[in-house]
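Question thread 4412

I'm putting together a teaching handout and wanted feedback from people who do this every day. The idea is simple: show students a protein as raw sequence, then show them the structure tokens that encode its fold, then repeat with a second protein so they can compare. Below is the first pair exactly as I plan to print it.
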Amino acid sequence: MGRPYIKGGTPIGSDSLCKTCSYAQIMSGFRESELLTICHNPDPYLTVPFNIYECTRYYDKNRPSYNQMQKLAIHVEPKTLKPAGFRTGIGFQESVKVTVGTTDDDDEYDDD
């Protein structure tokens, strides 16, 4: 059973959102404490002193751009439309006329 999502709860894990953001410049040293993250989205640039859990300006650098998506897209040509309604086939070829509110005396409807 998976863990339930609790809004505003304690985050699980310690990976920074900046690691996959296209606006981030991350420099790391040999130790875990030697990490410098600079965000290039605000003006002037912002040095981030801690791991980021949530960011409103996050832009995933692994997401393809619009031009890349157009190159990958498959062009589909529409085919002729099928007739709307019920299916026809063997046993459904006979046409049935239904008249509502008429009597047997009415001769204006002919059976074809």
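The second pair follows. I'd like the answer to focus on this one:
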Amino acid sequence: MDYKKSNAPTNTVTRNMADFVSETGNVYESVAIIGKRSNQIAAEMKDELLKKLNEFSSTTDNLEEQFENHEQIEISRFYERLPKPTLIAAQEFIEGKVYFRDPSKEAAEEA
């Protein structure tokens, strides 16, 4: 997923809880789904950031070089400006872009 093009807000937004109940019928189940998706997004973003920052890693321990690497600073600032994973996950859930399933409900339907 391209988080840079997400239309999620970058700050806290008051949400209508009816938007979250429509998919699952239960607010708590919706929050659990959003929480799990948020953890997935955070892990993906962290991996992507570490890959980009590792491109700049050097084997020398020159202190001056570490402070002068402006590219690393710009990359870090870019990721800090992105919407938080919880906001991205909530927006995806509202837009219906999150796939989820409940194995207990599937087992009850088959029986």
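Top answer:
Good format. For the second protein you could add a caption like this: The chain has one domain: 20-97. Residues 27-54 form the longest helix (28 residues).
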